[in-house]
Specification:
single chain; 316 residues; ABC transporter transmembrane region fold; 2 domains; two-stranded antiparallel sheet; 9 helices; 2 strands
Length: 316
């Protein structure tokens, strides 16, 4: 029976990991396709307001966080839930009252974790934003390396990069500090439950209301809850990072083009060579610079628009 149970356990682990991790990869693939298709449907104002490095960061790091959440995160949530149900069922079968003593610290742990979750989400999102800025800085400096060297701006570029990298490290250190507090809280919860069981259960063994064998078995089953409790802290961190990354991806998926095409195209009866512009406006951002532009360019002619430097900032 032990050999059969071990083989069944191994088969279930292989099957579950293969199924869930493959599903996470497929989800990542579908989201990446949707993101790319969405980018191609957006117009120029969206790309003017965004940076290339930030978009690259969303396609790589944010997608990786989402895949980790729907892959390893879901897998460990299922494993943790099964272990908790199995261990608690065995504990209750031995002594319901002692089980209640063992789980007394858990409500306090849940309260602390709930208070930390919001902070973890904010810090994770801040870290992803800093990573996007870092990626943008690398992309800009590498693409403009020739210009930087031509103007002898190496030291300034290094200093700017060091500052951006420092902010990214600081944001990740804040996450590490929170994780460093969260995981020990999880571990302390299991240890405190074990201490209560040793005190209360030991007294019952001495009093003869609980056998020594049941007491040893109870502690063995209680030990099964310690590792899932610690893993729960890692899952929570993974969930908050995945949620923060998904919120950044939704910023692309929810974007709408400013200029939309009509549902039904107007058929063109005949094509002529001249170009006519009527009452157009040119602007940087939300401030119009040139208004009431009207031109008629005959077919086969050329038009050049010239003016002094800075004339684009002067109203016509």
């Amino acid at each position: 029976m032990i050999i059969g149970a071990a083989l069944l356990h191994g088969f279930i682990r292989i099957f579950s990991r293969t199924t869930l991790l493959h599903a996470a990869r497929r989800i990542e693939y579908r989201i990446r396709d949707d993101l790319y298709a969405k980018l191609l449907s957006l117009d120029q104002p969206f790309f003017t307001g965004g940076r290339t490095g930030d978009l690259m960061s969303r396609f790589t790091n944010d997608l990786t966080n989402v895949r980790m959440l729907v892959g390893f995160g879901v897998l460990n949530i299922i494993n943790t839930a099964i272990l908790y149900v199995a261990a608690l069922s065995l504990l209750i079968s031995i002594s319901p009252s002692l089980t209640l003593y063992a789980v007394l610290p858990f409500p306090a742990m849940i309260f602390v974790v709930k208070r930390l979750s919001a902070s973890m989400f904010r810090r994770s999102k801040r870290a992803q934003e800093e990573l996007a800025r870092l990626t943008s800085a690398v992309e800009e400096n590498v693409s403009a390396a020739a210009v930087i060297k031509a103007y002898c701006r190496e030291e300034a570029a290094i200093s700017s990069f060091r500052e951006t990298s420092g902010r990214y490290m600081e944001s990740n250190m804040r996450i590490a500090q929170l994780r460093g507090f969260m995981i020990p809280v999880m571990a302390a919860t299991g240890a405190l439950g074990t201490l209560i069981v040793l005190l209360v259960g030991g007294e019952r063994v001495v009093g003869g209301t609980l056998t020594l064998g049941d007491f040893v078995a109870f502690n063995g089953y209680l030990a099964m809850l310690i590792w899932p409790t610690i893993v729960f802290g890692w899952i929570l961190n993974l969930a908050q990072r995945g949620a923060a990354s998904m919120s950044r991806l939704n910023g692309i998926l929810a974007a709408e083009p400013v200029v939309t095409e009509p549902e039904r195209a107007i058929p063109v009866q005949a094509l002529r060579g001249e170009i006519t512009l009527r009452n157009l406006t040119f602007s940087y951002g939300n401030e119009p610079l040139l208004t009431g532009i009207g031109l008629q360019i005959p077919a086969g002619s050329r038009l050049g628009i010239v003016g002094p430097i800075g004339s684009g900032n002067r109203p016509w």
